[in-house]
Structure formats: C-alpha cells, structure tokens
Design brief:
By secondary structure, this protein is an alpha+beta fold. It has two domains: 8-198, Heat Shock Protein 90, CATH 3.30.565.10; 214-343, Ribosomal Protein S5, domain 2 (2-Layer Sandwich). It is 33% helix and 24% strand. It contains twelve helices and 16 strands. The chain has helices at residues 8-19, 23-36, 68-71, 83-87, 98-104, 154-157, 163-180, 211-218, 220-224, 267-277, 316-330, 332-343; strands spanning 41-47, 53-58, 107-113, 121-126, 129-130, 134-135, 141-147, 185-190, 193-198, 226-233, 236-243, 255-259, 262-263, 289-295, 300-301, 312-313. Strands 1, 2, 3, 4, 5, 6, 7, 8 and 9 form a nine-stranded mixed β-sheet that branches. A five-stranded mixed β-sheet has the order 10-11-14-12-13, with helices on both faces. A two-stranded antiparallel ribbon has the order 15-16. α1 crosses α5 (98-104) and α10 packs parallel to α11 (316-330). The radius of gyration is 22 Å and the shape is elongated. The structure holds adenosine-5'-diphosphate (ADP) and magnesium ion. Adenosine-5'-diphosphate is lined by residues 29, 33-34, 37, 58, 60-63, 71, 77-79, 93-99, 142. Keywords: DNA damage, DNA repair.
Length: 344
C-alpha cells in the first residue's frame, strides 16, 4: 500500500479514540470548555445515559459566528499561542481537539452568542461533515448538543454499557467537578427529569469547600469524620479534607486529588497519602480524602495524556514528601489518641 494523507474526519475519529471513551468523557470535555469560558452556571441535559443526547449549555463568554468553524477545527484553540503559554497553562483545555473529535463521532451542533454581540449563530456537524454557519438566537453563552454518540463507529458503540452505568460515570465525574468548583451552579437532567442540582456557592473562597458541599458530595459520615488540612511551604499549598482513620473504605472510591484545580490520578501522591495513613489504617482498607495541591503551573506538566488524567511534576520527590509530612502531621493527634486507647 502506498503512503497517503488521511482525510480530516478520519484523523479526528482516530484522535477521538483517545479523548472520547464514553459519554462521561464528552460531558467532561464540554463542561471544562464552559468553565474555561467563565461560566457561572452550566445546564447538563442527558438522554439514555448520554448516549442518545448530551446537551451542555453555559452562560460563559461565547463564540463569535465567524469563529464557530475554528472551534471545531483540529489544533485550533483560544487558550494558548506559544510553548511558553503551554508551560504556564492555567485553563483546563489547551489542545484544541475535543470539539473536532466529538463532532467526528456524533451528530453535533454548536450554538453560541459571544459576550457583547447581539447575534447568535449555529453550526452543525454530522459525523464529521460540517454544515454552514446559520443565524440562531441564543442567550449569551454556548450550547453544545451531541446526539447519537458513536453512531458512525460501531466498534466503539459496542463497548458502551447500560444506561445506568453510563449515567453513573457521568454523575461521578460531575461529583468530582462539584468538589473542585463549588462556585459554579450545575443543573443536571436525565430523560427529561431534573436529577441533580449543585448550587453555586458564590465566590470560590480561599478556604475552599463548605461543609454542605462536602456532605452533599461524599456523604454526612465523611463530613462528620473529616479533618481539615491546610499547609503551605516550599511554594506549595495543600488543602482540603481527609477522613479520620475510623472512617475508611474498602476501595479507593473516595480519593479525590486536584492539582491546580484539575482532577488527576497520581501514583506518587497516592503513595504519600497511603504512607501517612500506614500505621492508623487496617491492612487493605483505603483512606478517603479530597485534597487540592496548588503550585506554580510551571512546576507541573499537564500535557502528558490527551485526556489529561495525569500530570508530571518537575520535583516529584519534593512534592511526595510535602504531602506525606502534611498528612502525617494532620493525623498526629489521632495517632496519639489511638496510642492512648491502646495503652489504657
Ligand atoms: P480547547 O479547549 O483545548 O481549546 P476544544 O476543542 O475543546 O479545545 O475547543 C476549541 C475552542 O472552542 C476553545 O479554545 C474555545 O475558544 C472554543 N470553545 C469551546 N467550547 C466553548 C464554550 N463552551 N464557550 C466558549 N468557547 C468555547
Ligand atoms: Mg476543551
């Protein structure tokens, strides 16, 4: 076979393989775009676990009619313009590939009205085939509609699970988001019925999460047993909540870690936490926590994976030790209490 250049739609479908695993990944990418656009409220309407429909509407800055085609073009982004920007990036997105990827594997519509403009417009894409920009009334902000996910990629569609399961993945992701952004209102509906409302709690205060948000997201038991963590040093800040050892889990299902506001998985930090709990938890039990690590964006590379689930730290060892020491100190009183009980 001779070497040939692949058509754009196929390139986007290949990229979609990395970014769009299931409906929850679409919700993630679209809500992150809404947050990057400064939205205060995001409406999330779903049908059939998001497979039939995902509609995300925000009240953010919006997109100009003439920029709609750019928004769905590959490697087109308003978030970075240079390597230097990339290295200090603070937005959730920057790769410019979510919208074109999603649009290539669904029936897709993007409607928007840009802040300060009085005309709205819409652009439809059907399985990668791009339509014409059409005028459309729209409040300030953006609506993205994704119908029939993977309708043109049967191999992918086959791997979608039952409606309940897909909805569960979406809800879990929204919980993760609600913990990080209590300042934004999120309203969710499924099959026409409102299912969840995360109320916006005003400005994101420095202290972070309210008790209400914590118990809404993780349950009252967690909230009752949570210790506050707040520690800064070496230009690092770790804050959030960790559960007393008496509240522990069979699995790692309540371990939320955010690096500069982005939910990530990190083995080194997970290890540091585990180590801090090592002598106060029974073997095989898992700690529960919501932790936010803040540091200069230049000390962390977020461009490790297309879906950005992982990051790479410039000084991983230092960060590991910082987290370990902070949590070890936070658990010191508990540890002393346990020792006293044991000797009594
Ligand atoms: P990225 O987020 O990496 O820039 P995307 O493909 O997700 O790439 O989006 C492409 C561009 O479209 C964004 O850079 C942004 O300018 C615009 N855009 C996408 N969604 C929204 C939205 N909800 N509100 C405003 N602009 C948006
Ligand atoms: Mg994006």
């Amino acid at each position: 076979m001779s070497i040939r250049q692949l058509p754009d739609t196929l390139i986007n479908q290949i990229a979609a393989g990395e970014v769009v695993e299931r409906p929850a990944s679409v919700v993630k990418e679209l809500v992150e775009n809404a947050l990057d656009a400064g939205a205060r409220r995001v409406d999330i309407d779903l049908e059939e676990g998001g497979v039939r429909l995902i509609r995300i509407r925000d009240d953010g800055a919006g997109i100009s009619p003439e920029e709609l085609p750019l928004a769905i073009s590959r490697h087109a982004t308003s978030k970075i313009a240079s390597l230097d920007d990339l290295e200090g990036v603070t937005t959730l997105g920057f790769r410019g590939e979510a919208l074109p990827s999603i649009a290539s594997v669904s029936r897709f519509a993007l409607s928007s009205r840009r802040i300060g403009e009085d005309r709205g417009a819409m652009l439809e894409v059907d399985g990668g085939r791009v339509g014409e920009i059409a005028p459309k009334p729209h409040p300030q902000g953006t609506t993205v509609e994704v119908r029939d996910l993977f309708f043109n990629v049967p191999a992918r569609r086959k791997f979608l699970k039952a409606e309940r399961t897909e909805l569960g993945h979406i809800e879990e992701w929204l919980r993760q988001l609600a913990l990080a952004r209590p300042d934004v209102e999120l309203r969710v509906s499924h099959n026409g019925k409102p299912t969840r409302r995360w109320k916006g709690e005003g400005d994101l205060v420095d202290m972070g999460l309210s008790d209400t948000r914590i118990s809404e997201a993780l349950g009252e038991e967690f909230a009752k047993n949570a210790l506050r963590v707040e520690h800064s040093g070496a230009d690092l800040r770790l804050h959030g909540w960790i559960a007393q050892p008496s509240y522990n889990r069979a699995s790692a299902d309540q371990q939320y870690l955010y690096v500069n506001g982005r939910a990530v998985r990190d083995r080194s930090i997970a290890h540091a936490v585990k180590q801090a709990y090592a002598d106060v938890l029974f073997h095989g039990r898992q700690p529960a926590y919501v932790l936010f690590l803040e540091l200069d964006p230049r000390r962390v590379d977020v461009n490790v994976h297309p879906a950005k689930h992982e990051v790479r730290f410039r000084d991983a060892r230092l960060i590991h030790d910082f987290v370990y020491r902070t949590l070890n100190d936070a658990l010191a009183e508990t540890r002393a209490g346990m020792a006293q009980q044991a000797s009594a």
